[in-house]
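Lab notebook, bench 4. Continuing the backlog of folding jobs that were queued last week. Each job is logged with the same field layout so the records can be merged later without manual cleanup. Today's entry covers DUF3054 domain-containing protein, a 146-residue chain. Filled in by technician R.K.

JOB TYPE: sequence-to-structure
TARGET: DUF3054 domain-containing protein
LENGTH: 146
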Amino acid sequence: MTGQQPTAQQRSGFPRRDAEGRILTLGDLLGVSLAGWVIGVLALVLFDWAFAVAGAGDFGRTNGWLAVILPAWLFWDDFRAWDFGAARVVAALSAAVVAVLAGLLVAGLASGLAPLLTGGLAALAFTVGYAVLWFQGVHWLARRTG
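JOB STATUS: finished
OUTPUT FIELD FOLLOWS
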C-alpha cells in the first residue's frame, strides 16, 4: 500500500485529509478523536456492566483511561502521515506531556468518583489537550522549520 495515491473516495472521507494523509482541520481531528473517546467509554461501560452482571466485580471499577485507545490510534496515524523531522517529534512529545499532565490533574480533581468515571474524564482531558496541542504545534513548527 505504500506509494499509492489516495483515491477520490479516501480524500472525501472523514476526517478530511490532504494528499499525504494528514488531517486537514482541527475540527476534524477533534471530532473524530472525541467520537473515538465516546466509543471507548461506551465499550468500557458495556464490558464493565457485563462483568458486574457475571459477578466478576462491582460496576464502575474499570480503569476509564482505556477510553483513550481509539483517540491515541488516530493521533498515531496523523503523526505517521507527517514527514520525518523535528517538527512532528517536538510537537508530539510536547503535546503528550501536557495532555498527560492535564489528564492527571482532572483525575486528581475527580478522585472521589468511581475509577471508570475518573479515568474517563481524565481520558477526555488528554484527548482534547493532545488534539489541540498536536495540531497547532505541528503546523506551527512545520511552517517555522520548512
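OBSERVATION: The mean pLDDT is 87.
SIGNED: R.K.
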